[in-house]
């Protein structure tokens, strides 16, 4: 799936294939885009996130069973992030669920739309209508400590002060859009679900106020605040506990697909846990062994060069008793130290919306 905004991007944009989507990785360079996102605000092309409508009389019951968080009372003025699991308790996707008058609208993670749709349709015991809306709707994002100011200049200043996960059906340039206060990076974040035919115009209008940031800068900023990146963290048959995404599951729900497996993982206390680490100048590949006192205790899940830290930053999956901050490990001959998340302090945490 090629981004619907490709014709509106600069000619030297660098694209990459992420799952089923071709996404802009970089526009002007990782460092510059990261600094814009962390210091000011950036507009994001999120068209690699598939939009799937669940409708029909049993839509809420279906979503309540398929999503791991409680969406029974999700109104059209709210959205909520949740995992979608299979029967084994493994992650199918991490979605943003929007309450709608006739059901729900699910936003997949980047490049995971095909897998999500297939899973939903395979588990459609309630006979709901599952519609891929990505042919007529797409998603744009705004993130950064001053993103609220951009919202005011671009659409309406009152929208900037919406509570977290609040949703408003509003109008931009005579076009109906769904506007939400969300966020992936720990900074002020907003999303706009817009008809495809108007997406390029909204993108260009946003660029009059901010620069664009690509997928590489976005995922680095996500990693720095330990926002899960499903495509990079869920390989290898790991469960919710091992990846540290417990907060995206409501185990008190009566029923959801994968609940028994999640409860079993909680009760067993076995398996490995995910912890952040930093250190050195080299960037180890996923699967690189993690050593403690010369003993193999785990493996690297992902690692990048952090612009904010000026060092390598990564995630490792290690023996449960070693998933703590301040421990010294060795990865490919380099000493690293485990960290407490968030690994940086977002600027937005000290800047009020005015």
Automatic annotation (TrEMBL):
Transmembrane segments: none
Single GO MF descriptor: methyltransferase activity
Start and end residues of each Aminomethyltransferase C-terminal domain: 272-332
All residue ranges annotated as the GCVT N-terminal domain in the record: 15-253
InterPro entries associated with the record: GcvT/YgfZ/DmdA, GcvT/YgfZ_C, GcvT_C, GCVT_N, TrmE/GcvT-like
One Pfam family per UniProt: GCV_T
Domain of life (superkingdom): Bacteria
Source organism of this protein record: Acrocarpospora corrugata
Gene Ontology biological-process annotations: methylation
Keywords: Methyltransferase, Transferase
Name of the featured protein: Aminomethyltransferase
